[in-house]
Amino acid sequence: SGASAGIKITAGSSNTSYIYQQDSSSDLSLYVNGADRLYIASTGNVGIASTTPWGRLSVNTGSLAADVPSFVVGSSTRTDLVVTQSGTVGIGLANPDATHRLVLKTPAAGSDVFLAYNSTGNILFNFLADGSDNGKWEIYDGSENKDIQIATNEDTYFNGNGNFGIGTTTPWGGLSVDTTGLTSGIPTIVVGSSTRTDHIVTH
Question: φ, ψ for residue 3 (rounded to 5)?
């Protein structure tokens, strides 16, 4: 209202078009179908379906239908990223499991699902699907040598410089097994099964 607000379209060298609100204490709203749909506060914060945005971009999902996500990058046929109303983030899938906070889907067999790098740019952790779409977890040292692999359809190995402990946080041998917490009658190491024992170490 008054001289402090308006729509300006400028032709020529500047090629500028904008809607403006010059009053430092007034906000700007896009009002559609009886409600504020886009709200720009005088502080610069932007609200979608909110007239009190408390972050630089605030989205109020209170009026959304139950199956409508809060935020989507993609389209109805291809979802790159989705944030549901329950707070679940899905990458590569449209309907992430609501019991998890972050759900990732590999784009194809043999593809990485999650990578983590150190400060020099070398891989530290890699969660991926192998060529047959089976799960695999790889851990690297600071020079990107793969020391640990846990796989469902390939070899699983530990190849680091440290010792490996089961039931202990201070392993003093290449493989250290602490049996302190075992129930009486439970062996320390068994090779075989509950119906056929090839080798057993008691404690």
Answer: -90, -5
> For the whole prediction, is pTM greater than 0.90?
no
State the distance between the two ends of the chain, measured CA to CA, in whole angstroms. Answer: 86
Distance CA 151, CA 168 (A): 23
Strand partners, 23: none
State whether residue 143 is helix, strand or coil: coil
User: And the tokens for 68?
Assistant: 């409508």
Model confidence over 137-183: pLDDT tens digits?
999 999 998 988 999 988 888 887 788 888 888 888 888 888 888 88
R_g (Cα) of the chain, nearest Å: 29
CA–CA separation, 126 vs 106, rounded Å?
A: 12
Token readout for 139 is 């851990």
DSSP letter assigned to residue 61: -
Residue ranges in the chain whose pLDDT is less than 50: 1-2
